[in-house]
Amino acid sequence: MQNKSTVSWKCPSNIALVKYWGKYGRQLPSNPSISFTLNNAHTITKISYEYFDDPKKSIELDFRFEGKPNKSFSDKLSNFLNSIKEDYSFLKHLDLQIESENSFPHSSGIASSASSMAALAMCLLDIESQITGSNNIDITKASCLARLASGSACRSVYPQIAVWGETTDIEGSSNLHAIPFQKHIHPLFLSFHDDILIVSKNEKSVSSRAGHALMKNNPYSKARFEQAFLHLKQITAAMNIGDIDTFGHIVEKEALTLHALMMSSDPPYILIEPNTLKMINAIQCFRTEEKIPVYFTLDAGPNIHLLYPDDVSNQVSQLKDYLRGLCVDDTIINDQVGQGPVKISN
Ligand code: PMV
Question: CA-to-CA distance for 166 and 229, rounded, in angstroms?
Answer without folding.
Answer: 9
